[in-house]
């Protein structure tokens, strides 16, 4: 029997220039490497100095990642919006999908990050965007 899966949805503010391509490439490369090693899947959106991330995996692997994140000088004001047990992954195959913020996604991102709207909407919106952008 495998380990129980959990999903975390969190937001954070960037320290420094999160909109810089160099920072985004560094964050994505590090995330993809670490997440593949730790059997974590998920997606990341970066927009207007904020991060929105969905992560899925075993509880202890998510705990280790959140400890690393707390010590990451690129993030501040980390807010866990949701942490729940899940029956299946929504981001299978993506150690870390990068979701580009398009004009169509901006309202969803604003509602989730600024207004604290539903995490379920964030997960589904990011999954659909990742699928569309990878096609």
Q: Can you describe this structure in just a few lines?
A:
Helix content is 40%, strand content 30%. The chain is of the alpha+beta class and 135 residues long.
The overall average pLDDT, rounded, is: 81
User: Would you state the CATH class?
Assistant: Alpha Beta
Label the CATH architecture: 2-Layer Sandwich
End-to-end Cα distance: 33 Å
Q: Tell me, what's the shape?
A: globular
Q: How is the quaternary structure best described?
A: single chain
Structural class: alpha+beta
How many discrete structural domains?
Answer: 1
Q: Can you give the helix content as a percent range?
A: 40-55%
Rg from C-alpha positions?
14 Å
Strand-and-helix sequence, N→C? EHEEHEEHH
Number of helices: 4
Biggest sheet overview: 5 strands, mixed
* Topology-level CATH name: Alpha-Beta Plaits
What percent strand?
A: 25-35%
The poorly predicted ranges are: none
Q: Give the strand order, joined by hyphens, for the main sheet.
A: 4-1-3-2-5
Number of strands: 5
């Amino acid at each position: 029997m495998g380990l129980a899966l959990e999903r975390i949805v969190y937001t954070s503010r960037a320290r420094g220039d999160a909109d810089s391509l160099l920072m985004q490439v560094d964050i994505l490369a590090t995330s993809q490497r670490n997440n593949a090693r730790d059997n974590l899947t998920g997606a990341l959106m970066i927009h207007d100095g904020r991060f929105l991330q969905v992560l899925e995996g075993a509880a202890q692997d998510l705990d280790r990642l959140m400890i690393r994140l707390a010590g990451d000088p690129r993030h501040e004001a980390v807010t866990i919006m949701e942490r729940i047990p899940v029956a299946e992954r929504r981001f299978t195959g993506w150690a870390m999908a990068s979701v580009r913020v398009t004009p169509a996604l901006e309202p969803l991102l604003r509602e989730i990050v600024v207004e604290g709207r539903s995490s379920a909407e964030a997960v589904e919106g990011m999954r659909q965007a990742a699928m569309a952008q990878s096609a």
